[in-house]
Write a structure and sequence with these properties.
It is a single chain. This protein has 247 residues and is an alpha+beta fold. Helices cover 17% and strands 31% of the residues. Strand 8 and strand 9 form a beta hairpin.
């Protein structure tokens, strides 16, 4: 019984995200020896804010089997549990994010699109993120629990939407942007963004020898806690699809 008040005092549920306009998401070097031997370790994240990057407020850990990570690391299924607390397991549950097995990401598919399902700690659906049909530039959509489209998730584009704008975050700063756009956006250039998840440089050793990436996550203005949970779960998917192993 004594553990219950302590857990509640740390916060819990998607409402834990309500006070934050941005997050700083740090993938740890958990299992770095395992990764050097060619097998992805379970993904682990410690989450802070951009203003206080060392003050961890949340923790996330992947649940998946060793065999599936060894054989199908790029498109493996997983369950990631997000909890509140100082960057360690055991905090109050915030949300769950489940990625089913899918074929590799890529355009011109009519089925087997990448997706991740978002739920609250009680298992109640919060919505999903799904890969949209695309030709040249990766494109995803977040959907509310009722199935309505919420946001478009895509790298910024140029040349009429046919190419990724590699200069959107400036030159020679090793920042890789994936932006958040309104669900009805007709342009996906950098000026139309309302939020974003930007991979930043983690240091030479981590970039070369581990999958320990770091991201700045900026929520759109007016995003409610459920929307923030969907975007954080989307970041977990983006990390697996585009930044693990091959970078």
């Amino acid at each position: 019984m004594a553990a219950i008040p302590q857990q509640l005092s740390m916060g819990g549920g998607v409402e834990s995200l309500a006070a934050h306009n941005d997050l700083f998401v740090k993938q740890t070097r958990r299992g770095c020896i395992q990764e050097l031997m060619g097998c992805d370790a379970k993904t682990e994240f410690k989450i802070a804010t951009k203003a206080n990057q060392q003050g961890d407020i949340m923790y996330a850990l992947e649940e998946s089997s060793f065999c599936i990570r060894l054989i199908c690391s790029a498109n493996r299924p997983w369950l990631i549990n997000l909890s509140a607390g100082p960057g360690t397991p055991g905090g109050a549950p915030v949300s769950q994010h489940e990625r089913p097995f899918r074929l590799p990401a890529g355009g011109c598919k009519c089925c087997c699109h990448q997706e991740v399902y978002h739920r609250d700690p009680n298992g109640t659906p919060l919505g999903s993120t799904k890969e949209a049909f695309w030709f040249f530039v990766p494109k995803f959509e977040t959907l509310r629990a009722d199935g309505s489209k919420e946001y478009i998730i895509s790298p910024p584009t140029c040349v009429g939407g046919m190419c990724v704008d590699i200069f959107a975050e400036g030159l020679c700063n090793c920042r890789v942007p994936i932006y958040v756009y309104p669900g009805d956006a007709t342009s996906l250039d950098k000026d139309a963004k309302i939020g974003g998840m930007v991979k930043i440089w983690s240091g030479l050793g981590q970039e070369l020898f581990t999958d320990a990436d770091k991201f700045e996550l900026d929520f759109p203005p007016g995003a409610d806690p459920s929307a923030k949970a969907r975007l954080l779960g989307t970041l977990f998917l983006m990390n697996q699809l585009f930044f693990e192993s091959s970078n």
